[in-house]
Design brief:
The structure holds two protein chains of two kinds. Chain A has 13 helices and eleven strands. By secondary structure, chain A is an alpha/beta fold. An eight-stranded parallel barrel of chain A has the order 1-2-3-6-7-8-10-11, surrounded by six helices. Chain B is globular, with a radius of gyration of 15 Å. The chains are: A alpha/beta, B mainly alpha.
Chain lengths: 354, 98
């Protein structure tokens, strides 16, 4: 009997008061839900800052996906060494010859890749840097890097090892590889293998160069493209065989993906026949591929030196870049090369041909 | 919406501050700091702005950059990046970092 009464109560339609209570409860629940959503929205996913304060955030949003492939070396490049942006204390130059502002000029001229010396052993030769720093000047390097990326260019960081302290050499190279600022990283790392004054014995020097290269490869992994900036084989095999006999081409070939021979024909005498942009470059590339035993080795020849390059020599160099199926080419360096000549070369080194 | 109201209130409800100041800096750094831009980077950025950009120009930029689609001046981007880079400067580790 009592159960029937309860059942009747439950089945009876709700009174007006009950319905009002229910409606009030629904409203309260809805208000709570809205408040929770607002609070979570405020603290969970903040809107990016706007105005000038939003600049660092926008720089980060504009960072390109770094794809350290050989394509980074395609087309025309510009070379900047640390003495361009950090002139030695008391030097005649006094002021920097290349500043981050000039990156926009590079882009306008058709430069696709900026090769920036980002580290140096014993950087205490400059006033602004400290030998304890793994990179020359992270402040300036960050400015070059971000401005180049904003201008649509890629940036390769390079370093000149001396081979006498491989731990330190490696630390500088890994610092370049790891450097990241507001989401921007170097698009490639290049090792400038040319220093002969540190270790006098060529065999020991070769061993050190191979060991450093192997350790660098281990540190960055197999997927990163590494580039080797090398003395041109014509110089090592014809002009001055005593400079670095038995250079370890084959051993280094296991590590590096792209080769950048420094074919500075302006350093050669007219009598040698190599003071010619085409002859010096083509023979260096041919010998390089033979030494590597790789006829398809990817190369990006570097001509120079900028302030002594004539338009006729530059014309011959561009021909050589094309005829050797080089992926790209450049002249050392940006600060010394005539801007008009630079623009002409850029227009003729088509990355699509690489 | 609430954030914008807060900024407007902090700026006196209209017109904003008359120049670079400690109070303006604090508001700026608070707005600027994100997961990638630390307070140190933002403070450095503000200092460089104060040293290199006249305040009238700052206010113009502030208005221009309210539109997220507005082009970002490369020199401002480099200024901020330089600060973030400087923050990574190491001392006394013998070059073994990284």
């Amino acid at each position: 009997m009592a159960a029937m009464a309860v059942s009747r109560l439950r089945l009876a339609p709700p009174s007006l008061r009950q319905r009002m209570r229910l409606a009030r409860l629904v409203v309260i629940v809805l208000v709570v839900v809205v408040l929770v959503i607002r609070v979570v929205g405020l603290f969970g996913e903040e809107d990016p800052p706007v105005g000038v304060a939003g600049v660092p955030s926008r720089v980060e949003q504009g960072a390109p996906d770094v794809d350290r492939s050989v394509d980074v070396h395609a087309g025309y490049g510009a070379w900047v060494d640390m003495y361009d942006y950090l002139p030695p204390e008391g030097s005649a130059a006094g002021e920097a010859t290349v500043t981050p502002d000039e990156v926009d000029d590079m882009a306008r001229q058709g430069v696709r890749t900026l090769y920036l010396q980002a580290a140096q052993l014993d950087v205490d030769v400059t006033a602004a840097a400290d030998r304890a720093q793994p990179l020359t000047d992270p402040d300036l390097i960050a400015q070059f890097l971000v401005r180049a990326h904003l201008a649509g260019m890629r940036v390769v960081g390079w370093y000149l090892p001396r081979f006498t302290d491989l731990d330190r050499d490696l630390a500088h190279l890994v610092a370049i590889s790891d450097f990241e600022v507001l989401g921007h990283r170097f698009d490639g790392v290049a090792v400038d293998i040319e220093w002969t004054a540190g270790i006098s014995d060529p065999a020991e020097r070769s061993d050190a160069a191979v060991e450093l290269s192997d350790r660098l490869r281990d540190a960055v992994g197999d997927d990163d493209v590494l580039a080797a900036i090398v003395l041109p084989p014509v110089q090592l095999e014809v002009v001055n065989p005593q400079k670095w006999p038995n250079f370890p081409w084959r051993e280094l070939d296991d590590v590096y993906d792209v080769w950048l021979p420094m074919s500075y024909w302006t350093e050669r005498t007219p009598e040698s026949g190599y003071q010619d942009g085409w002859t010096y470059t083509t023979e260096s590339v041919r010998r390089l591929r033979a030494d590597l035993q790789d006829p398809d080795a990817v190369v990006h020849p570097i001509g120079g030196i900028g302030d002594r390059v004539t338009p006729a020599q530059a014309d011959r160099f561009v021909q050589a870049v094309s005829e050797t199926d080089a992926i790209g080419g450049s002249i050392y360096d940006w600060a010394t090369l005539d801007p008009v000549l630079s623009g002409d070369i850029a227009a003729r080194i088509d990355p699509a041909e690489g | 919406m609430w954030g914008l109201l807060g900024v407007a209130a902090a700026c006196g409800g209209g017109g904003g501050p008359d120049g670079y100041s400690a109070e303006h800096r604090a508001d700026f750094v608070e707005d600027c700091t994100t997961s990638v831009a630390t307070a140190e980077t933002c403070g450095c950025f503000y200092s460089r702005l104060a040293a290199q950009v006249p305040f009238d120009r700052f206010r113009e930029l502030e208005e221009e950059l309210t539109d997220p689609a507005a082009p970002m001046p490369p020199d401002l981007a480099a200024m901020a990046a330089g600060c973030a880079g400087a923050e990574q400067r190491r001392t006394g580790d013998g070059g073994d970092g990284g």
